[in-house]
Amino acid sequence: MDNLIQASYFLAALLFILGLKRMSSPLTARGGVVWAGWGMILAVVVSFFNPASSSITLLNNLDLMLVALVTGSGIAYVTAKRVAMTDMPQMIALYNGMGGGSAAAIAAVTLMQAGGGHQSHGHMTLAVLGGLIGAISFSGSLIAFAKLQGLIKKPTRFAMQQQINFVVFAASIGIGIIIVLSGGESETPLWVMLMFMLALAFGVLMTLPIGGADMPVVISLFNAFTGLAVGFEGYVLDNQAMMIAGTVVGAAGTLLTQLMAKAMNRSIGNVLFSNFGGGDGAGGESVEGAMKAADPTDAAIMLAYSENVVIIPGYGMAVAQAQHKVWELTQKLIARGVRVRFAIHPVAGRMPGHMNVLLAEAGVPYDLIYDLEDINADLPNTDVVLVIGANDVVNPVARTDPSSPIYGMPILDADLAKNVLVVKRGQGAGFSGIENHLFFKDNTKMVYGDGQAVAGDLIQAMKEV
């Protein structure tokens, strides 16, 4: 039986890895999710027969486990079916937090039942580390969810915030060390509860001051935290599937976080501990000129008589749920012989790959979607760049103004195109609060209105051209 269990865990781990590999391409991502899902089902089923599970009396609560599995799976199925694509970032944040919370709960059970000093220091250390990281990921992800959902409107900052955060974090680490050194003595449960309270508080405190513009990096970071926590608790439970799955997710999340931070030309520490993304509009050179408005009819004529058009989507397109109308507009242009491509910035939207997901939902072929590094060289020769809901990722001050908070961040060079059309609700600054100098350029025209409504007007106007 033991050999069969180990072989099943190996197969589950293989499905996790292959599934993750397939998720790296839009063409195979759906299959990758299915593969990883089957791996998870196999790992869960096998865990019921794993003798190591009895070490923390999990199988003594078989009824509760089945109720939890059925309830959780049912809730996940219904919510995943009903969630709008525009709400996908907050759902990702919420579910990621549940993973971290689960790892923390496993650690809590392990530490609470480690009485009598029978656990080794290594075993206790892994349980404490997994518990700390999982608890931070849980509470931090809940705050990220609240920010994305609009329940928390603005970053929360107060005097000596970073110092207080450090004290809370250091205290949780210190108590974790006490728990490890105590080896599970009778007073440990009190220390365990205090450690988790401090870790949960730190997750909240570290996420509250982070602005919405940094949410893609934060979500990716908490994903890495959850993976690491699950991996550590896999060692605690002697569960190979958890070890491998957690390690893979942790490594992938760490690499993605580094790539996202690099795409913003900022360190992870700067994302977590700076005041960027707060919407205060500080920093940057003054803006010269004025925004020039264009009506949908004039914009449609400009698009219809172009040879090549590049569309740059952003979070505004997601909020307006305009992706289907944008694809319909694209089809109209293609039918007129216009070459149309989509340009995607790595941190456009509120989660990694947000724009790719929305465009895929609308049916946009993958070969029309280009990454920043693949299309930037073509933008100076582009007749019209159509910006829909994007802001900081096309702001030219990232190249020109050393005093700007986004200076050095790689951007899509929309301002270098022959003409730029920007679809925007109003004249306000973007989510990070930085004024976009692209909007004031001589080659830029603003088409004001809701993204979906404007796209519909462009389609109607194009029929009359």
How would you explain this protein's 3D organization?
With 465 residues, the chain is of the alpha/beta class. It folds into two domains: 2-273, no CATH class; 296-463, Rossmann fold. It has helices at 2-22, 29-47, 62-82, 88-112, 121-149, 161-182, 188-207, 215-237, 240-263, 268-273, 296-304, 315-320, 323-335, 354-362, 372-375, 397-400, 451-463, and strands at residues 308-313, 339-344, 369-371, 384-388, 419-424, 444-448. Strands 3-2-1-4-5-6 form a six-stranded parallel beta sheet. Helix 14 (354-362) links the parallel strand 2 and strand 3 (369-371).
User: Mind summarizing the main beta sheet?
Assistant: 6 strands, parallel
Radius of gyration over all CA atoms, rounded: 25 Å
- Order of H and E elements: HHHHHHHHHHHEHHEHEHEHEEH
Instruction: Count every helix, treating DSSP H or I runs of 4 or more residues as helices.
Output: 17
Summing up helix and strand content along with how strands pair, one would put the structural category as alpha/beta
